[in-house]
Amino acid sequence: MTNNKRLQTLIVYGLLGAIALVTLFPLLWLISTALKSPTENILQSPPQLWPNQPTLNNFFSVWQSLPFGQYLHNSILVAVLTVVLNLLFCALAAYPLARLSFPGRDWIFIAIVSTIMIPFQIVMIPLYILTVQLGLRNSYLGMIFPSLASAFGIFLLRQAFMGVPKEIEEAARMDGSSELGLWWHIMIPAIRPALVTLAIFVFIGSWSDFLWPLIVIQDENLYTLPLGVAKLAGTFSLDWRLIAAGSIISIAPVLILFIFLQRYIVPTETSSGVKG
């Protein structure tokens, strides 16, 4: 490697490191605030990231003062059910749009994708009215209802289905596979990276959703973590140490999920199963 290439590599890595540090600074400050004792000044300038007297008392206080265990259970249940149902319905909708031929297929796809441009706030009121009419208000299913399927998910999975070689599909049909069997046993495993990617997006969106649960839920026993953190802010009159601790509890599962699933977000060589 020549000196110029080494210098270019060092510059690139230096820029990437600086961008990463700027991106991670809010998270580092949040962790630092959650670990600081009441005697430390959390608003000092310049900020001190490492506490003088690190303590976990803020986490214990948050967990004991509010039913964060129940909030965590609600968030996990809602997020997991949302992911499962969203993957199911999006995959069922995307498959015929990608692999089957019928009149108006392309126009239906265009109409579905066009709904991505519609802000949620526009459909929020009619969606709430429909939720109430279906008797889903103040329930887990009521929180899941708007996310049963998404235009982005249908688009992503349709593109993934279209990337599966036709030779695999033809071989399965020759073996007598039904359309549903072909979808489940051949197509779904072939687009696993796209499914994992969509699952991560849906999980993060459901986990961090604040507006819709706030509208549809009144029973505090059904609160999710975002609602619990908002209640925490009012309970402790903006004690930032406790709010930071509650926020860490809220975002930790998302970080853990991403760490374990990031290795699956890679293209798969589906065509490798086809030999010429």
Short précis:
By secondary structure, the chain is mainly α. Helices cover 70% and strands 0% of the residues.
Can you tell me about this structure?
The protein has helices at 3-35, 57-65, 68-99, 105-114, 120-133, 140-144, 151-162, 166-174, 179-190, 192-208, 211-216, 225-235, 240-261. It is built from 13 helices and no strands. Helices cover 70% and strands 0% of the residues. The protein is globular. It is mainly α and 276 residues long.
Topology order in helix (H) and strand (E) letters: HHHHHHHHHHHHH
Mean pLDDT: 87
- Secondary structure tally: strands: 0
The biggest sheet, with number of strands, parallel, antiparallel or mixed sense and barrel status, is:
none
Secondary structure: helix percent:
55-70%
How many H/I helical runs?
A: 13
Strand content: under 5%
Q: Globular, elongated, flat, extended or rod-shaped: what is the shape?
A: globular
For the termini, the CA-CA separation is: 39 Å
Q: What is the C-alpha radius of gyration, as a whole number of Å?
A: 24 Å
Q: Flag low-confidence runs.
A: 268-276
Structural class: mainly alpha
Spell out the blueprint of helices and strands.
Elements: H1 3-35, H2 57-65, H3 68-99, H4 105-114, H5 120-133, H6 140-144, H7 151-162, H8 166-174, H9 179-190, H10 192-208, H11 211-216, H12 225-235, H13 240-261
Helix pairs in contact: 1-13, 2-13, 3-7, 3-10, 4-7, 8-9, 10-13, 12-13
